[in-house]
Design goal:
By secondary structure, this protein is α+β, with helices and mostly antiparallel strands. It has 2 domains: 196 residues, Jelly Rolls, CATH 2.60.120; 105 residues, Homeodomain-like (Arc Repressor Mutant, subunit A). Helix content is 47%, strand content 18%. The strands form 2 sheets. The protein has a 6-stranded antiparallel beta sheet. A 4-stranded antiparallel beta sheet has the order 3-8-5-6. It is built from 12 helices and 10 strands. The radius of gyration is 21 Å and the shape is globular.
């Protein structure tokens, strides 16, 4: 199977620094009221997106998983501040609480399956590893393996047909389809993990340890030499290894993590540029603005205005 795959960081913004005001819905645009009515709700992407001019504003779902697959069209998704291009074959799992938005091309279509976390509780506890696999957003873009993608589309199609009827056993059938959809994504995550395990070597382990260190300390602006020293390697070796494994130098890993957090604050909070700069460890807001502009090709204020 040829595809690209990404698991996204789902860490929350620092509570002391955030002023997030993002609406939470059951389904987009619908007020949360009582329990989610069905074991599974499924609809075509176009049925809701076309009503909103193909623009789904930033929002989150408190107790809801969403499973999405595009079969036509495309656009862009912003998931927890990170942008992803959408094309036919893109499959996404969105766990509860993740902030996301979509910019669909007119005419885009596919399926959106929404499942309350309680409906998946028995599956998440019965199958070892599935809860962890679905705990973070996952974006899977299939290449030439149409059979695997076709399996998901078929499940979605038959689930949609069941959802639109009122036959006996409907609730049990919808619950079974919810499990099948979740299992499809779990299997996709396991395939990716198995591939990573096969490729694992000393270089990959070093890079993983480096990324974990950056995740802890990126706000403190530790010099690259400090990271290398704590990992027991030289700066040239760490830089070379990051280039081999990630395709970018080690310093880029640090800068990219700062940029990810900066974009989150600019898009999802009302903090001033200075507040964001200080919160990210910059002693000079002007330097933060230069740092951001050099990497995003747009000033922080303009990035916020465009988002």
């Amino acid at each position: 199977m040829e595809h690209s795959f990404s698991l996204l960081d789902k860490s929350n913004l620092n509570p002391a620094m955030s002023n997030i005001s993002v609406p939470a819905y059951w389904l987009y645009g619908e007020r949360r009221d009582g329990r989610f009515p069905d074991a599974l709700h499924i609809e075509m992407i176009a049925s809701r997106s076309s009503l909103h001019n193909w623009r789904i504003q930033p929002h989150r779902h408190h107790d809801l998983f969403q499973f999405i697959v595009l079969v036509a069209g495309g656009g862009k998704a912003r998931i927890d501040g990170q942008d992803h291009e959408l094309s036919p074959g893109t499959a996404i799992v969105m766990p509860p609480l993740v902030i996301h938005e979509f910019f669909f091309e007119p005419g885009t279509n596919g399926f959106v399956a929404s499942v309350a976390d309680l409906s998946l509780k028995h599956l998440l506890t019965r199958e070892a590893g599935i809860a962890a696999a679905l705990a973070r957003p996952m974006v899977l873009v299939h290449g030439q393996d149409e059979a695997e993608l076709g399996e998901l589309v078929t499940i979605m199609q038959t689930a949609l047909a069941e959802f639109g009827q009122n036959r006996s056993g409907r609730e049990g059938a919808l619950s079974a389809y919810a499990d099948l959809i979740a299992i499809w994504f779990w299997r996709a995550a396991r395939k990716h993990t198995a591939m990573i395990e096969r490729l694992k070597d000393a270089r990959a382990l070093l890079v993983r340890r480096f990324i974990e260190s950056v995740e802890v300390d990126f706000r403190t602006h530790q010099p690259l030499a400090a990271y290398a020293r704590s990992l027991g390697v030289s700066v040239p070796h760490l830089t070379r290894t990051c280039r081999q494994v990630l395709g970018v130098p080690a310093i880029r890993v640090i800068h990219d993590r700062l940029m990810l957090e900066a974009r989150r604050y600019l898009v999802y909070t009302s903090m001033t540029i200075s507040q964001i700069a200080f919160g990210l460890g910059f002693s000079d807001p002007a330097y933060f603005s230069r740092f951001f502009t050099a990497r995003a090709a747009v000033a922080p204020s303009d990035y916020r205005a465009s988002g």
